[in-house]
Structure formats: C-alpha cells, structure tokens
Amino acid sequence: MQEAKVLSYRQINKDLLGNIFKSSNRYWLIVGFLTIIVLGAFAAAGYMINRGLWVTGLNRPIFWGFMITNFVFWIGISHAGVMLSAILRLSKAEWRRPATRAAEVLTIFSLMTAVTMPIIHTGRPWRTLYWAFPFDFQRGIWPDVRSALVWDPSAINTYLTSSIMFVFVALIPDLAVLRDRSTGLRRMIYTVLSMGWRGSPRQWKLQAIAGILLSALILPVFVSVHSIVSFDFSMTISVKAWHSTIFAPYFVIGAVLSGVSGVVTVMIFIRWLFNWEDYIRREHIDALGRLLIVIALAWFYFFALEFMFGIYGQEGDELATRHMQMFEPPWSWLFLTFIITAFFIPLGLWLFRDVRRSFLWMTITTLLVNVGMWLERFLIIVPGLARKQGFTGTWHTYAPSAVEITIIVGTFAMVLLLFLLFAKVFPLIPLFDIKEGQVLKDEIKIGRRRVPAVIRED
User: Fold this and answer.
1) Mean pLDDT, residues 173-191
2) I want to staple 361 with a disulfide (CB 3.0 to 4.6 A). Which of 122, 265, 270, 355 is the partner?
3) E strands, 137-180, where?
4) 444, exposed or middle or buried, with CB in 10 Å at 0-12, 13-18, 19+?
5) Backbone angles phi, psi at 444, to 5 degrees
6) 248 and 231 Cβ atoms separated by less than 8 Å
7) Which among 209, 223, 264 is positioned nearest to 90, based on CA atoms?
8) Is 397 helix (H, G, I), strand (E, B) or coil?
9) How far is CA 305 from CA 226, 245, 308, in A?
10) Residues 429, 36: contact at Cβ < 8 Å?
C-alpha cells in the first residue's frame, strides 16, 4: 500500500470522529431526504395493510412478487460483511481496513430490512405470530415444520445476532475513544458501551482473540443463511424452474457478488460525504475490483450450470419457463438487462486498471451489478410462478403496483438512512485498525538501509 499518507493519531481521531461531534449541512440534507422517502414507504405499507393485498399486483398463480424479490436481494447484500470482514481478517489482507466496519454495518441493516419484507408481504403482519404461537387449536392448524420457510427465521436471526456481536466487539476500543472525548449523557452511554476498556495489553489480546474466533464461527452461518433461503425455492416441487440442486452455492456466490459491490458503492459514497480521501484510496477500490472479477467469474459459472441443468431435463414446463425468460417480452428485455448489467459490462470494465482505480467508474459498475442481481432474483421468482405446474390452465402475468414500488424504493432509502444514523453515533472506519495499519507500515533505519519496523510471519 504505497499511496497511504502518514497521519498523526490526533489527525486520525479528528477525521474519523468529525461527523459524530459536528455534522455538515450536506449530511443533514441527505438524512432529511431519505427520511421523507422512508416515511412514504411506511405510508404505502400502512395503506396496503389497511386495504388488503389487492392493491398489489399479486394474483393467482403469482403470489410472490417485488417484496419477496427484495427479501432475497437484501439477504444477498448482507453477505458483504462476513466476506470483507471475517474472511479478509483471517487472511490478513491489509487493504480490508477501511472497508470492514462499513461492510459489517451494511450486513446488519440489510438483514433488518430483509426481515420486514415477508412480514409486510403477509398483508396482515400480526398473523406472523401464528408461526411462533399457533392459536387455532380447535381447527388443528399448525405450521408445517418441514417447510424451508420455517428455517428462515432461525438462520436469519442467528446471522443477525452474530453480526451484531461481531460489530460490537470491534467497536469497543473506538467506544473508549468516544467516551474520553464526550461529556454529559453521551459520555455516560459510551462509558457503559465501552465496558471499562482501558487499552491494557490483556484487553487488546482478548479483543483480538474474540475478533478471530467470531470471524471463524460466523463463516458457517454466512454460508448457511443464503443456502437456506435458496431452499425456499429448491424444495418447492410444484415450480419446475426452482428445484435445482445447484441453487445453494449459486445463491451464495450471487449474494457475495451483490454484497461486495454494495460495499464498494457505499465506501465511495461515504468517502465523498465525509471527505475521507486519506482513508479510502484508489488502491482500496482497485483491490476490491480485482476481488470482484474473481467473484463475478465464479457466479457466472454457477449461473451457466443452473441454466443448462434446466434445459438438460427437456421437461415441457421447465422449457416453457426458460422460453418465457429469454424470448417473451417484457421478460426477455429484463433478462437481457440482467445479464448485461450483472456480468458483461462490469467484468469487461474491471479488467482495466484505470476503471478499477476510478471512483466514478467503480460507482457505476457496482450499481449496475446490483441492478442486475435484483433483476436476477425477480426473474427466478415471477416467471417460475407464472409457469407453475399445478396451474397450467391459469397462466398469468405480474405487474407491480405503485404501492409495491414505493415500498421497495423505501427499503433502499431505509438501509442508507440507518447507515448514516449509525455514522452519527459510531465511527464507520475503525480508528484502531487504521492506526495499526500505520504501525505495520512503519520503517526504521538500520545502518544505511530502511527496513519494516514489524515483520510478520505471513
């Protein structure tokens, strides 16, 4: 990492804690704008709950539309946290340092947003309590515990809990810095949250061990979450296009592609918003761009396999679904947009070093990836249901209503709003991680030569 400037610890504290103690007008304008959109989405959801699901575009046999697509999409985005934080922490990749907390926080808020989608989708959210507390004993109605849908809450709650612990453990040293610079009620809150951190060698050792252990423990959860979400589809026998044995790894690698792209977009955004040019540099997005090339190629491999498996069976309803996806408008246009934006344009551009080191181009390409990945989930869900085996006589199409579009737009605003509100209370870039990175880059003069002050075994 040759582009880094050597900054004093005082300067690092001032830069990375600046928004917490004094936010700019630009920050509040964006927060206000996002709040309006989120309130609009809440109003739309309230209207839908009051009037019923007929205000959506859902109709037999397509009972999963925009909201379930959005649920799968946000679960996918949440995979960025573990990919960038846990895996890169264990592999000791130096360029991970400014990206880890942003990725972890994005994971938490993506999961929280994803959870709201199926609840709103029920049309009567209070009835979701039925899953936990069956109430209709007389009629003998019970949740089907064999359904993969029952596994979702367990997997997501486990992932959310472990992700919050992961963020909190890494936050403790920074909370102590905030405690020492705060007064009044804010100081009391940071004092409680910092749990008596004094920065002793033993505390640093325990914090590092906890971080490594959590990194290792969260990896199986990371793989299981989107695998279980893929079981929602692959175990549905009646929908031909869904029950593919390759769905689990295909969903997981797609989630990683989507999540890492989301983190790059967010990193460039916070760099612009908080003037963190010295912390989020071209070398970081260059490294992330190279990582994205590998992930995109792996995703395309699984996508091609899944598509060929569908055609290989030569089953009539499966072929009808594939024909609908590729040749029947508007699905064919959506399919073309999906494959071009999710793979061909970004990958083609990432091969050029100048693109990977350009904040503008990386913003465009990573946004394109997530446009494509959202469409991918949409094209899995809706055409599959439209050609559902049991309803061959009632094939139907789907068009989202204004209510659904408002709710979906609101979820994007909500994730970004929660992210910015987090930045008002906690540092988005770990102070201790940046300082540690500087120490590892220090050089000392021995004789006529300058050598690294710290030599690590890796």
Assistant:
1) 91
2) 355
3) none
4) exposed
5) -125, 155
6) yes
7) 209
8) coil
9) 18, 11, 5
10) no
Maximum Cα–Cα distance across the chain: 88
Contacts of 203 (CB under 8 A, 6+ apart): 197
Q: At what angle do helices 247-274 and 66-77 cross, to 10 degrees?
A: 70
Strands 443-446 and 449-452: antiparallel
Residue 77's identity, in one-letter code, is I
- The token duo for 188 is 């009391």
Nearest Cα to 180, choosing from 154, 199, 157? 199
Question: According to DSSP H, which parts of 277-430 are helical?
Answer: 282-312, 316-327, 331-339, 345-350, 353-356, 359-386, 402-425
Q: Kindly state the tokens that stand for 419.
A: 């992210």
The 10s digit of each residue's pLDDT in 101-159 is: 888 898 899 989 998 998 898 888 887 777 666 666 666 667 777 777 888 888 888 88
The string of DSSP letters for 235-268 reads T-TT-TTT--TTHHHHHHHHHHHHHHHHHHHHHH
CA–chain centroid gap for 102, Å, is: 10
Distance CA 172, CA 179 (A): 10
- The label of the residue with tokens 């029950």 reads 243
10 Å CB burial of residue 195 (0-12, 13-18, 19+) is exposed
Please state, in angstroms and rounded to a whole number, the distance separating the CA atoms of residues 197 and 203. Answer: 7
**Is the separation of the CB atoms in 270 and 91 below 8 Å?**
no
- Other residues' Cβ atoms within 10 Å of the Cβ of residue 305: 15
Distance separating alpha carbons of residues 442 and 64, to the nearest angstrom: 55
Question: How far apart are the C-alpha atoms of 429 and 437, rounded to whole Å?
Answer: 12
Q: What angle do CA 280, 436, 101 make, to 5 degrees?
A: 50
Under a CB-based contact definition with an 8 Å cutoff, are residues 86 and 166 in contact?
yes
Question: For residues 358 and 288, is the Cβ–Cβ distance under 8 A?
Answer: no
Nearest to 401 by CA among 67, 71, 119: 67
Strand partners, 449: 446
Specify the DSSP element, H or E, that contains 48: helix 25-51
pTM above 0.85, yes or no: yes
Cis peptide before 98, with omega less than 30 degrees from 0? Answer: no
Express each pLDDT in 378-401 by its tens digit: 998 888 888 766 555 555 678 889
Q: What is the chain's Cα-based Rg?
A: 24
**Two tokens, residue 428:** 């988005």
